[in-house]
Design brief:
Blueprint (H helix, E strand, L loop, with lengths): L2 H13 L2 H11 L4 H8 L3 H9 L1 H33 L6 H14 L57
Helix pairs in contact: 2-3, 5-6
Length: about 160
């Protein structure tokens, strides 16, 4: 028997093991790799070795393709719903943008569009701190409402408490 044939037979044999099948099913279902290995009763090193096998990887990718195909109808329905909500008269701009993206994807245009709602400024709640350009030095904060010849404290109205 040739080495490649022996390797293929070994992969098929490994794929028939219940632990390996459970491990692959858990990964396909979206479980984390480490958690799937632990749940299936496999050591992490063994799970990595199993996933490095070409026959196992082919089986895994076939299963992922089945999941992707089965989810396609729901994804199209979601895009239609998003598109329809964004076309309502009272829809906010952000929802209209999502609707536009959904419509593009429904038309088969999967590239990302660069639509800017607020111009070039991002609006975020909080404080605005304006910094001077780097060429300017420090500036003194002055009381512009006070007259320059009038003192800030009127010393004439102060009375001596001790005497």
């Amino acid at each position: 028997m040739e080495p490649t044939q022996a390797k293929a037979d070994q992969s098929r044999t490994i794929l028939r093991l219940p632990r390996v099948q459970q491990f692959i099913e858990l990964i396909v279902a979206g479980e984390k790799f480490d958690d799937a290995a632990k749940t299936a009763g496999l050591r992490l090193k063994r799970a990595r070795m199993i996933m490095s096998d070409p026959a196992i990887r082919r089986h895994y990718f076939r299963q992922m393709e089945v999941v992707s195909e089965s989810e396609r109808a729901r994804n199209i329905r979601l895009r239609r719903t998003l598109r329809d909500r964004g076309m309502e008269a009272d829809a906010p701009a952000a929802l209209a943008k999502v609707a536009l993206e959904a419509a593009r994807q429904l038309d088969g245009d999967d590239r990302q569009a660069s639509i800017t709602i607020n111009g070039s400024n991002n609006v975020i709640a909080g404080y605005v701190v304006r910094l001077p350009p780097p060429g300017e030095g420090p500036r003194a904060i002055t009381n512009r409402s006070a007259e320059s010849d009038k003192p800030l404290i009127n010393h004439e109205d102060v009375t001596d408490v001790e005497g």
